[in-house]
Amino acid sequence: MKIAVIGSGYVGLVTGVCLAHIGHRVICVDNNREKVKSLKQGRIPIYEPGLEDLLKKYLKNKRLSFAVSIAEATRKSTAIFIAVGTPSKKDGEADLTYVEHVARDIARAMDSYKLIVEKSTVPADTGQRIKRTIRMNLPGKFCKGNDVTLDFDVASNPEFLREGCAVADFMNPDRVVIGVESAKAERILREMYAPLKPHMVVTDINSAELIKHASNSFLATKISFINAVSRICERLGADVLKVAEGMGFDKRIGRKFLDAGIGYGGSCFPKDVDAFIRLSEKSGYHFNLLKEVRQVNEEQKTFFLRLIEDKLWIVKKKTIGVLGLAFKPDTDDMRNAPSLDIIQALQREGARVKVYDPQAMPNARKALKNVVCCKDPYALAKGCDCLLLLTEWDEFRKLDFGKIKKLMDHAILFDGRNLYHDRDLHALGFEYYGVGRGMPKAKRS
Length: 445
Prior knowledge:
The chain is α/β, with parallel strands linked by helices. It has helices at 10-21, 33-40, 51-60, 70-76, 97-109, 126-137, 166-171, 183-193, 205-236, 240-248, 269-283, 288-312, 338-348, 361-367, 377-381, 394-397, 401-407; strands spanning 2-6, 25-29, 64-67, 79-82, 114-118, 143-144, 147-148, 152-156, 176-179, 200-203, 319-323, 352-356, 372-373, 386-389, 412-415, 431-433. It contains 17 helices and 16 strands.
């Protein structure tokens, strides 16, 4: 099948490369000429395991190509995915400016049947607005009064890709959701995804759009719930890890996303929670539960900072080393990363901050000011009064803490992800503090 993907950001690039991988001929479009030039040379602007190798493979056999022209891609394709950014406005509502512009440009280039598919995360009713935009911008030869003579369909196909394992998620999906209004659109999308043999959820467009926002908001709710529980654990001398374990064996609950820490970040959860709250308000319902989810997430960073300040006593002029900057492991993405707020708060208190991340250092240099960027964890540890673990990279599981202790001025570790819950760091001479591990030190694992 001939497919166009408009927008070569994270979602668009992964979608385009993976569609080529399962046998389709794909044109990926982006209005950034430098990015397109780089992609044509086989270089990707993000860190995503396995993606660059696939991109090079399908560039070479010409199943995958890149362009800057929406018109060119539209004319050459049957299905056209819209995968452009939908940033948040000040009130939390999704800004659909890019979606509208792309829909307009697609319409003006159409000369035969096209299936236009929303891939961007958008609020309910966006599909209907795209359909109206296309009708309004079709070439005049296809318009007769208030009717159009050119057949087309609009569909919704939300993405459920996790940064760091997006290729695996695409190739082995839990489900593929499609919102359609015609049998033809359903047939095309079923044929497109047939090589994956997925469980297909077929619904109307509005429901498909809501599934994405509801899914991410529910996962954010689980994270904020266990973080709220972690605060109770601290006060009552309980261990949040044991609480989460006991909860997780209940099949109705499950263990995933019950990891207490410094809160969620990234480009999806914060934006999607905000957008769902705003969408609910516009519909006449005040989603107070999600407002509290958002509040708990923000407060979790403050809670962690208070722990640091309590144990260090004076933060001013202390040297603090930060292990991990990306919002999660296996990505270089620092958008809404909790590390940013934590580091900036420590700097305001007069701390000297050193940082290291296996992949996010280039982005860190852009996002952070007046920090010392280190080449590895051991250079980071040298001369530090304490270390903060903020991203649970596998590399950090294997650190030689005996060596690190000798390099530090004071052996204090604040574990913002409970990565070292099973390491006896006290035996090595560390003061160790996790999140929600409110048990007496002698009993801690």
